[in-house]
Amino acid sequence: MLKVAIVGCGKIADAHATQILRVGGCEIVGVCDREPLMARQLYERFPIKRYFTDLVELVSEARPDVIHITTPPQSHFDIALLCLEHHCHVYVEKPFTVDVHEAQQLVDLAQEKGLKLTVGHNCQFSHAAQRLRALVKDGYLGGRPVHMESHYGYDNAAYARALLGDRQHWVRRLPGKLLQNIISHGIARIAEFLASDNVRVIAYGFTSPLLRDIGEKIVDELRVIISDSERTTAYFTFSSQMRPLLHDFRIYGPKNGLVLDQDHEIVLRLRGAKFKSYADHFIPPVIFAKQHLENLVRNARLFLARDFHMDAGMKVLIESFYRSIRENAPVPIPYREILLTSQIMDTIFDQLRDQLADQSASSQSHADLVPPIGFEMAVPAVNP
User: Fold this and answer.
1) What is the radius of gyration, based on Cα positions, of the chain?
2) N or C: which end of the chain has fewer CB within 10 A?
3) What is the CATH number for 39?
4) How confident is residue 257, by pLDDT bands cut at 50, 70 and 90?
């Protein structure tokens, strides 16, 4: 029986507890939060053995095999470090750490001690995402990916209540603020299929008119171009204003392409070759209709099997991570991808800080603000 603990008893901890209990062969032996009421409420609502307010007591007395860290990102490194030093495997909610240097230290320590680490990029393990990954692995693209596009839409109402109403909110203290707490999902999709760790990034970010009008300076619109040394390219778009909200991923190869619609759990195969003459206007709609019907049937079967729910990807990720621990198998998300995602994010935030500095300098010398521009920066290779 695998003994599991959760550190951080806020909203996301509920999802972790629910999915852990769906996985066989494990039990939650303890939860921990510095606020006693938070730890107790989680303990009382789930079949959990004990609750703690001190992390050292948790690892010493409950002696978990695995610890899920669901605290704000600024605390991830210190908590994960302590857990690894007490010989616990660690699942860290996204974003993994506040920068790639902390991420590298955790990976190095885990490898030194023979322990396992993973990050909560559960969107990569939804049923649809797994189907896309299998098609890529089976060679549907016809070769190495040529180009990718990742969109991540964000409901502005979701952060308006919590973040905009609290000037001391922990998100404001992150190096990348709102973006850092969100964009790792979309960046990780791209990092998975980049052929090289040597990448270049051009980022452009700005504050939407909605926030500007109320005096906020939080960057909530981001456009990024990414390319690696093998000339694989990608676009990443984060938007709190664009409608409809999109959570999708497109990947194109030399022969065919694929589309993942995360919101609707749909995967579409894009045929690279055209049909002759007017047939190209009539046959593709039939092919797409057939694929949509196949997606409907597949989703219905998963629903009837009670395996179609909002956090299905988290369940698969947790199961895969636990399997890697029990069988000493590879982790579900390679460390290279975790580190590359962190490095790309660091580069984006560095560029955004440069843009804000340029904008501030321009505002002092011009009556009108000069719009921020994009900057290009090479990302050094990481050590997986």
Assistant:
1) 22
2) N
3) 3.40.50.720
4) very high
Neighbours of 18 (CB within 10 A): 14
pLDDT band with cut points at 50, 70 and 90 for residue 375: very low
Contact by Cβ (8 Å): 251, 257: yes
State the pairing for strand pair 221-228/199-206.
antiparallel
Q: Assign 370 a pLDDT band (cuts: 50, 70, 90).
A: very low
CA-to-CA distance for 130 and 14, rounded, in angstroms?
24
Q: Cα(57)–Cα(86) distance, rounded to whole angstroms?
A: 11
- Spatial strand order of the sheet with 66-69 comes to 51-52, 26-32, 2-7, 66-69, 89-92, 117-119
Of 333, 354, 353, 381, nearest in space to 180 by CA? 353
Dist CA 15 CA 21 (whole Å):
10
Residues 6 or more apart in contact with residue 18 via CB below 8 angstroms: 46, 311
Give the pLDDT of residue 70. Answer: 97
Predicted confidence at residue 379, as pLDDT, reads 59
- The pLDDT value recorded for residue 158 is 62
Q: What is the CATH number of the domain that holds 321?
A: 3.30.360.10
User: Where in the chain does DSSP place strands (E)?
Assistant: 2-7, 26-32, 51-52, 66-69, 89-92, 117-119, 147-153, 199-206, 221-228, 233-239, 247-252, 257-261, 266-270, 375-379
Q: Treating both helix axes as pointing N-terminal to C-terminal, what angle do 184-193 and 335-365 enclose, rounded to 10 degrees?
A: 120
Query: Tokens in use for 222?
Result: 């981001």
In a domain, 364, yes or no: no
Q: Are residues 154 and 222 in the same domain?
A: yes
Domain containing residue 42:
2-123
